[in-house]
Amino acid sequence: MAGEVLDALKPRPGGRYADGTLGGAGHAANILAASSPTGWLSGCDRDGVAVEAAQKRLAEKFAGRFEIRRGNFSEMAEWITEKSCDGVILDLGVSSPQLDSAERGFSFQNEGPLDMRMDDRQKLTAVDLVNDSGAEELAKIFWEFGGERESRRFAKAIVHDRAQRKFETTKQLSELIERLAPRHGKKSHPATKVFQALRIAVNDEIGSLKRGLEAAVKILKPGGRLAVITFHSLEDRIVKEFGREKTRDYTFSGEVDVPELRQPRKPKMKWVNRKAILPGEVELKENPRSRSAQLRILEKI
Question: Distances from the Cα of 193 to the Cαs of 98, 107, 133, 139, 232, in angstroms?
Answer without folding.
Answer: 17, 11, 18, 12, 11
